[in-house]
Amino acid sequence: MASRLATSLAGIPLRNPVLAASGTFGYGREYAGLVPPACLGAVITKGTSLEPWPGNPPPRTVETVAGMLNAIGLENPGLAHLVEEDLPWLQSQGATVIVNVVGRCVDEYVEMAAALDRRREVAGLELNISCPNVDKGGMAFGSHPETAYALVRAVRRRTRLPLLVKLSPNVTDIVRVAERVRDAGADGLSAINTLVGMAIDLDSRRPVLGNVTGGLSGPAIKPVALAAVWRLAAVGLPVLGMGGIWDWRDAAEFLMAGAAAVAVGTATFARPRAMLEIVAGLEEYLECRGLKNVSELVGEANPTFRASG
Amino acid sequence: MELVGASVLTHEALGAGYHRLVLAAPEVALQCRPGQFVHVRVSEDRYPLLRRPFSVARRGDGTITLLYRVVGKGTALLAGLRPGGCLDLLGPLGSGFELLPGRRAVLVAGGAGIAPLLFLAQLAWETGHPVRAVVGAAQAAELVGTADLGELGVPAAYATDDGSLGHHGPVTDLLEGSLAGEALYACGPPAMLRKVQTLAREQAVPGQLSLEASMACGVGACRGCACRAHGGYRMVCTDGPVFDLEEVVLDG
Question: The pTM is what?
Answer without folding.
Answer: 0.96
